[in-house]
Fold:
Amino acid sequence: MKKFLLTASILIMTGMIVYSSEHPMDLMFKTWIGSPVKSAIRLWGDPSDIDYKRGQREYKWVTTGTRFIPGTMFEERTQCERKLIVDVKGKIVYGSFSGNGCPFTRESVKHWNNPDYDYMQDVLNY
Structure:
């Protein structure tokens, strides 16, 4: 019984850690909150689309590509859509992503991080 409880506790804790860890894309968007959208455009290039909604602007970047399906000789099309929501002052207030081609490691998302972001401030806030 003790072995079962210990195993169950470990599995629950592991699940909580995995569930609470953020996706690298979400962490990347956090580096942009409060920054001017012009900085993101300078790094990411011109957006694919801009929508105006209720006093805010939604900037969208879409990247496409292909990748091999593991264990086969077939390819699939990939797409990653990044969105930045910008307030009336031109400051980024929110970011989101969707698609099957978005990076899923911290290393592969690095090139989209805000180069002016103060990482030490995050460390001090925890």
